[in-house]
Design brief:
The protein has helices at 40-56, 100-110, 146-155, 193-202, 211-214, 235-243, 254-257, and strands at 13-16, 60-63, 80-83, 86-89, 115-117, 128-131, 134-139, 159-163, 176-180, 183-186, 207-208, 222-223, 227-231, 247-251, 268-269. With 272 residues, it is α/β, with parallel strands linked by helices. The chain has a single domain (13-269), classed as L-arginine/glycine Amidinotransferase, Chain A, CATH 3.75.10. It has a three-stranded mixed β-sheet with strand order 2-1-15, covered by helices on one side. It starts with 12 loop residues before the first strand and ends with a strand.
Length: 272
């Protein structure tokens, strides 16, 4: 039998925004259907359960005040990139979300992270995930690949560019989870062939997740290096994580899935 890898959690710093004004009023990704009813109270309960999960795991959670008229602001990960002591605020592709940038920029400034703004579209940690001393950068649907160079320069870290090809996986964080500095899980059909090759090259121990788990946004997960908070419906991925020495922690964010997001989308991580 293979040796079980010992995993070590580290305390993390997360930023979240309550879904006080959450609704599906428009469709800017394939998950959104404005004719499907949304239960805001249920969304709030599910979001609060996620927040409490992080707190119970010992992590710091800070809150950004939600703004009326910005129903997608709950997806805090898209607000920007906070890494290496630097901040870049999002420049959204769709006008419906554009004003979220100002709210997150204000939070960054108040907390000692003067934000850089990019010339080209970038959708924050939706498309930029830190893995050790590199950033994995998604492009193809939202973030403009030209923003990869801007962000690499702003934060002083190299960006490995990965092309997304399936519109259901419109952000990198819907198709890939960083589990620790040297391990990721991903869904190969979401990427083009060169990107899959690059991932296998950089992460030879990567977990490849099956259709059933990817299609419930199971990879929209958050890891502290040992605990992996993920959508409860991704049971196959949870089994893979246990076999690899991680501890999966399932949460139900089914109401927020109606907007095309889950655990990671609701979580902006501050990487020191």
């Amino acid at each position: 039998m293979p040796l079980r890898v010992s995993r070590t959690p580290t305390i993390r710093h997360y930023v979240m925004t309550a879904p006080t004004f959450f609704s599906v009023e428009y469709a800017i990704n394939p998950w959104m259907d404005p004719t499907t009813p949304v239960d805001t109270h249920r969304a709030l309960d599910q979001w609060d359960a996620l927040r409490r999960t992080y707190k119970e795991l010992g992590h710091t959670v800070e809150l950004v005040e939600p703004v009326a008229g910005l129903p997608d602001m709950v997806y805090a990960a898209n607000g920007g990139v906070l890494v290496n002591g630097k901040a870049v605020v999002a420049r959204f592709a769709h006008p419906q979300r554009a004003a979220e940038s100002d709210a997150y920029a204000e939070w960054m400034s108040r907390h000692g992270y003067p934000p850089v703004r990019t010339e080209h579209v970038n959708e924050g940690q939706g498309d930029f995930l830190a893995a050790g001393r590199i950033l994995l950068g998604g492009h193809g649907f939202r973030t403009d690949i030209r923003a990869h160079r801007e962000i690499a320069r702003a934060v002083g870290m190299p960006v490995v560019s990965l092309r997304l090809v399936d519109p259901r996986f419109y952000h990198l964080d819907t198709a890939l989870t960083v589990l620790d500095d040297s391990t990721v899980a991903y869904y190969p059909p979401a990427f083009d062939a060169p990107s899959c090759h690059r991932l296998r090259e950089v992460f030879p121990d990567a977990l490849e997740v099956a259709d059933a788990d990817a299609h419930v946004l199971g990879l929209n997960a958050v890891s502290d290096g040992y605990h992996v908070v993920l959508p409860a419906a991704a049971t196959g991925f949870a089994a893979q994580l246990r076999a690899a020495g991680f501890r999966p922690v399932g949460v139900d964010l089914s109401e927020l899935l109606k907007g095309g997001g889950s655990v990671k989308c609701c979580t902006l991580e501050v990487h020191s």
